[in-house]
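INPUT
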Amino acid sequence: MNKGNPALNEKDAPSAISAIQQGFERSGYICNSQIATSIFLAERLQKPLLVEGPPGVGKTELAKATAELLGKPLIRLQCYEGLDEAKALYEWKYGKQLLYTQVLKEKLGDLMQGAKGLKESITRLHEFDDTFFNEEFLEPRPLLKALWQPGGAVLLIDELDKSDDEFEAFLLELLSDYQISIPELGTIKARTTPIVFLTSNNTREIGDALKRRCLHLYIPFPDTALEQRIISARVPEVEERLRNQLVAFVQGLRGLDLKKLPAVSETIDWARTLVLLHARELDAELVRSTLNVLLKFQDDIENVDSEINALTTKALQAAQ
Amino acid sequence: MTEVLGDFIRALRAADIRVSTSESIDAGNVVDLVGLGEREILRHALSQVLAKSEDEKQAFRETFDRFFAFDQFKAKPENAAAEREESEPGSGESQNGSGGMPGPGGGGTEGQPSGGAPAPEDLIAMLESGDQAALQMALAEAARQAQLNRIRLFTQRGMYTRRMMEIMGLDGLNDEIERRERADPAGAQRLADARDALREQVRDYVEKQLEIFTANAGRQLREEVLSQVRLGNIDRSDMKIMRTLVAKMAKRLVALHSRRKKVEKRGQLDMRRTIRANVEFDGLFFHTVWKQQKIDRPKVMAICDVSGSVAQVARFLLMFLYSLQEVLPRVRSFAFSGQLGETTELFERERKIDEALTKVLRDFGGGSTDYGQAFVDFERLALDDIDHRTTVLILGDARSNYGNPRGDILKKIHARARRVIWLNPEPKSLWNSGDSEMKRLAPYCDTAKTCASLKDLERVISELLRHAA
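OUTPUT
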């Protein structure tokens, strides 16, 4: 199935998993074996993968990296309140249908020529029954597109928790059987089973029925070693010493009681900021002036202010 | 392996992780796929099919480590080695001893259909050579035959230990020890020691299994009971469990009602949005958009009696009020016994529920109840803020010490508010007895209900959230 992709052709699980991990690393996505295992399982078991975790730990990024690794197109569906079938699955091209009706009107006389009586006319018309409801007039939206993609695709259903309950229920058929029902056409099956990612920020609980159909991966904040590797992959310009210091500082910051803890994406932004400022070493003043990159709430910034000196000292010591 | 996996899943269920049948099947597939070679990979892989929330992942990790712990026999390798050396000089003798009578023992076991258990001489050989790996396997096999995974109560430990020892060949071992006693007292003693050590190991094993399968059973039972028992009868020592229960309940309610719902009013066309939706079709109406009604989360004002007559219950009511404030964004809470005061801010400021409760009880509790005064204070503080979206929730027993309960103020409140709900911890038969004023107050409530246990509370609140509009 994955011809030409060495990462997923390994027979036994451990080597396949480490191959995935290395493949991700080449494309700049650093992950632990847990995440690689989940990709391996999702691919082999052909089950959708529900990824949860705090914002900014790389949930969406994981889907992108997987698409790149597998060499498949990434089809993305952003969820929001009020998302419905017409926007997620398919829509009829009404405009085109209208146009055809006009054309048909003119041709109707020719068609009906020679028909005897109403009955025969109707029979003739019935022969054209499906003219308006066939794939010609179907506008595929992300979900249908993913099922139709000839070589298979990576489908990312982003921030599922933002959608309505009804939409979640509507996804069940797609997720368990990789098929969808269109009333006018019948059931459409996937040409090649796509790999499906669902992400959630936990603003609400995802239903049990959906969870049962998915593999579940929880991505927490990375530990120090992993975060250092992520920073060195993403912001290679930053020197090792500064990198260790800033990672240690962020790790310390996550121990505090804050409204929104800084995630990996914030650490990356901060590292870039510090590189721009030509910083060589962390100090309290520098931290104070750039803290708004890490913390997104004024309350948090004020709360942390008194702790900055202690945290910086600790980070400097830890990075020794 | 399927059997082990089944046991593991039962252990997970005992640890509060919900595993459905389809998930068990998935787990089987996962094991087939990743194999048993790498412990870490197996753990990650299984956790992804079996544990589906952050809490469950944590519990999964603990259960996995406990369930797949194979350390008990590795614990004393030096001992085993020493024993082996020691037994070397006498080994010829003992081997003769065991070799001398393979006939009856061997024949007997071979004839048995179960067959998995080692014959007595195997056990003796294992003990003498200190072959821990073989012992481990024999132990696991014996556990399987004794159906150790059905253990439920700690009083069954002795029985299961005994049964497993028997399956492993205790009788033969005892006979052998007796026989040797005459010829080789030292060897017999050694064997007896080994037997006692083995019994200890079996007992350990049984206890560990008991913990795995029943770790949470006691707590689950307790929670079940506590959620149904009358709030007034709950012991102080159970406060901690109650707190987690209340928190759980609040969380469940949030999950259920966290989003604003909408109801489509079919029949009323939303002209503006319909035109917008059909612009692309040249104004022809392909889509019709109906007017929607948003169901808002309710504005709640909760008044809680914390006086002496409801002292037992007051803590829970407050606990509940505190949790409610976390669930619903617009809750104002008030507490009173003699006088009434607002506790909204206190609850918001105080992160720890215990301290918040203590403070409220200190500030407002202990006095003699005066519903009249409380309503007067409430009128002054909050009557102006009550509108047609507000639900007023009163928690108390309506015992006003024969003072005027000021039903007229409640009438005013009733007239302005969307709903007035009275939750009384006393059973209905006691209402209107003595100084209870339910008769005079209940007419101004939309609902007056007994609310004695957590289950009752949950039902009422769920109702409140569902029908809020």
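end of record. DSSP finds 15 helices and nine strands in chain A.
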